[in-house]
Amino acid sequence: MSDQSPTPAESSYSYLGPAGTFTEAALKQVPDAAGKTWHAVNNVAEALADVVSGRSTAAMIAMENSVDGGVSATQDALANVPGLRIIGEYLVPVNFVLVARPGTTLADVRTVNAHPVAYAQCGTWLNETLPGHGHIPASSNVAAAAALLNDSHADAAIAPPGITEHYPLEVLAEDIGDNGNAVTRFVLVSRSRAIPAPTGADKTSLIVELPDDVSGSLLGMLEQFSTRGVNLSLIQSRPIGDSLGRYRFIIDADGHIADERMADALLGLRRFSPNVIFLGSYPRADKQTIEFTSRYDDAIFIEARQWLRGLLDPNHTAG
After folding, report:
1. Domain match, 309 and 220 both
2. Which domain holds residue 315?
3. Is this structure's pTM higher than 0.85?
């Protein structure tokens, strides 16, 4: 699918292009996106701008890599662009090939064009196979390969498998990634305020600021989750930027906002933090059911509230 003229937002999606990227592979997993218009963009900011402006109904963006952790550009963008919600997540296995112009051999390679993240994930192979090589950064994995056909000074490029289906290049080496189990987690972001129904295998994403830079602030934030039996699958700090020592935390918590334990944790965070951004509750891509002990069942929280109401009711005699 390729970029076309603007169409109604309900029929279009944005992704980091050009065609052939891992982001496109993630978007291919979205049933509602099949047969719709896809807009290839150059970066996360442009993808989110499409959603905010209504050019696209949703955008697929990279959120986390199993090797390099959270994607800071995405995290910062979500913290600064209001009104966005994550409505789904998708996992894409990550591996790389080294490609070059036809006729190039591995012995000819002196300079490699690559996206910085891909370059880092192939560091061991590159240093062992191409010692002393140079690196030219690219805006995406596919752009790295495409540049070889447009007067690039690089001799080769790191690209996704299947890149030769899109460009007349030759594969010099396969499976060059340092970690064969690498996976990137992508999220689909929209302006929709509708929250997907709970499935029992859900995730809630948040951005939370600490109230002040004093001893115990981080512990106070974490206790909002731990005392309610909510497990965190991601917590990463990012500077707010207004002064030294001021941080916000990007958090993925196991569970759904409709779960009593999660709802109670969010109420605690709201009282604790000067700024809590709710990014959404949505089904986990791995469909792994969330496990927790029985003392955090919904019924326990409901009974506790009823007990308190009974104490406040002068006509209540039980308890």
Report:
1. yes
2. 195-319
3. no
